Amino acid sequence: MYSPYHRRPLPDYFLSSPLVALLYPFHQLLLRLRGAPRLPPPGVQPIRVVCISDTHTLEWPDVPDGDLLIHAGDLANDGSVREIQAAVDWLRSLPHRHKVVICGNHDSYFDARSRCDEDREENGSFADVSSSTASIRSLDDLNAASRIDWGDIHYLQHSSVELSFPSTSPISSTTPLTSSNSRSITVYGAPQIPALVSFGPEHAFTYPPYHDAWSRTVPPETDILVTHTPPQAHLDMSPVYSTGCPNLLAEAWRVRPALHVFGHIHESAGCEPVFWDNAQLAWERLCASRRPRARYSRFMALAGLWRDLFDPSGWVDAAKVLVYGVLGVIWAQVWGGETRDGGWMVNAACMYRASGKLGNPPRVINL
């Protein structure tokens, strides 16, 4: 029995859906040929965003310099205050102007249901907090004071922060910014993840995979969205064995952030441009339509070839992925058109697979 968090052997992708397995590399190539999905505004200093996630008590030895450091959850393993504070102390030592952190399912202190025995309040009980409530409400809403010393770090849990950056030339981190020399972005962070396997009570912020924990939760003015789970069909072991959340994907379409940072799926670390267009929509439909096949045995997956042959809607979507992708390349590289409302999706998981070692490098995006 394969875990949904481990990549399947390559033949399984072809057995389940030859159409999307063959289309995938062409789709990725066209995405890259289209160029940057969004450029910094003209005449201003780009904001250099450094993205990490899933460090699991370990420290990356050489985090790149930048204006904003984002950690997308799983600072710890057992989720104790002890482990989390050690990770926070490391992040506090880094020189970035702004730092934003959310928690992940291993950071159990932040979900009152999941805390280690050593961290439970003597005079507080959260046994009556339901799974669905705890996954969408913030720690402050539960009237529980945090024991983590965050220092200059912005910790987000179903909340936003507006950050200011120099708009012209680099300024010392000690120099105050004024409205005339600053550029502001809004970052929203949320921790919840779909429980695709039978997680134990020590895992924080889990919700049933078909429960909608996302609709209308992200403020529309969000420039950077930080979640622990990926959205469906993007850096989540797509196209067939997708582990991302479809409701989060719908929320990303509604808000269309310039940058969406997540982690959780170690084996899909990387960066992917998104253009919020017909090519992307067709690709996501193909992934969603093949996702049920992930539940089939390898023997049952042998029927994938025949299902693909007699799936006219799948062939139409495959054609749209190619045609609209090629048109996007022509628009950007031949006609010199510029994409203004695209963005980046970044799976910033630093943990290399299930090795217990950090092997996926931090990702850097200029906004």
From TrEMBL:
An example Gene Ontology molecular-function term: hydrolase activity
Domain called Calcineurin-like phosphoesterase: residue spans: 48-267
CDD domains, A to Z: MPP_239FB
InterPro entries the record matches: Calcineurin-like_PHP, Metallo-depent_PP-like, UPF0046_metallophosphoest
Any matching Pfam family: Metallophos
Protein name: Calcineurin-like phosphoesterase domain-containing protein
